[in-house]
Amino acid sequence: MMRNKKISSFLNKYAVPIILLVFVLLIQAFNPGFHLLTWTNFQVILTQSTILGLISLGLSICVISGVTDMSIGGTVGLIGAVFAVSMVKGNGMVVSILLALVVSAVLYIIFTLLLAKSKYPSIIICICLMFICMGIERLYTDGKSIWLNNETVQTFATGNVIGIPNLVYFLIVLYVISYIFINHTKSGYKIRIVGENATAAVETGINLTKIRILAFGIAFALYWIASVLEPVRLGGSQLYAGQTYMLPAMAATFLGSSMITPGRVNLIGTLIGSIFMSIIMNFLTFLGAEFYFIPLVQGLLLLAGVALGTMRDRSIKQVPL
User: Fold this and answer.
1) Cβ–Cβ contacts within 10 Å for residue 310, how many?
2) Taking Cα atoms as reference points, which of 190, 180, 197 lies closest to residue 212?
3) Is 91 helix (H, G, I), strand (E, B) or coil?
4) 247-260: burial string, b at 16+ Cβ within 10 Å, e else
5) Helix 39-64 to helix 186-196 angle, to the nearest 10 degrees?
6) Tens-digit pLDDT profile for residues 276-316
């Protein structure tokens, strides 16, 4: 009986990651002519996972607090464009990073003022901010992608330490810090209880708006870092880059909620989901899939993630008071 419970518990936590791994191996098995699982290609996948992983991390923290954030469809692209344009104008790396930070801070202040002072739901504010940022980005860049010709940036983007790409270290460090914050600090506890039991949170004296503003603040900081690293990785800022990541980030977040702690959005699950999404996109590109096929797969994976996240564990889990 005890053994059956252990097996059931193991499968409940890790069945989805195992299925994802088998799925990836099957793709390689049916396409032996393509060396998809080489270390070189995996380094590329890890680098691609960095940006998606950081954006998904920010989104996950928002979802853990009980709200979602669609502003990434516009904010990420605008912040990245400001960084890239500043670099092209010769302002240097430090100044460009700080300018991107200022833009991120201004967007966050506008968002928090609307969230605190208006009666609009956060999702409406996020959508409005997304479209506003998309419009400003197009105006600021004249509707063009901005490409960098900087050897220092290219060297850093393609470099590695002990075989691990430089950009991946940002992903590792920020996930470790975020995990400790969410699971082992008082503020992280408040974010979790607000998301899982808002009524209980209010009864214990927690201010829902302040805690969600804190969650969005962490998310915007992560978006800023991702927005700067994306032009570094690509060698430039693509128009509407945020739109490229919005759907995969949602899919990674909700796919991650079906593993480790099923039924809950959790950071380890989000990381696994981000890597899996990057693997699938990499494989599809490697195999020469038509351009319209990639968003189709992303949409299906998002649907699967939401379905698995709600089906794996239907019980209502609460943070103990």
Assistant:
1) 14
2) 190
3) coil
4) bbbbbbbbbbbbbb
5) 70
6) 888 888 777 777 767 667 777 777 777 776 666 565 554 43
**C-beta separation of 54 from 221 below 8 A:** no
Per-residue pLDDT of 53-107, as tens digits, reads: 999 999 999 999 988 899 999 999 999 999 999 999 989 899 999 999 999 999 9
- The count of C-alpha atoms lying within 13 angstroms of the C-alpha of 99, restricted to the half-sphere facing its C-beta, is 17
Q: How far apart are CA 260 and CA 107, in angstroms?
A: 33
Token reading at 27 = 């793709």
Per the document, the length of the chain is: 321
Give φ, ψ of 160 to 5 degrees: -150, 160
Chain Cα centroid distance, residue 243: 12
Enumerate the domain spans of the chain: 39-240
Instruction: Say what the pTM is.
Output: 0.88
In angstroms, how far is CA 64 from the centroid of its own chain? 13
Do β-strands 236-237 and 146-147 pair in parallel, antiparallel, or remain unpaired?
Answer: antiparallel
**Residue 151 CB-density burial (10 A; 0-12 exposed, 13-18 middle, 19+ buried):** exposed
Considering only CA atoms, which of 60, 29, 53 is closest in space to residue 215? 60
Contact 255, 273 (CB under 8 A): yes
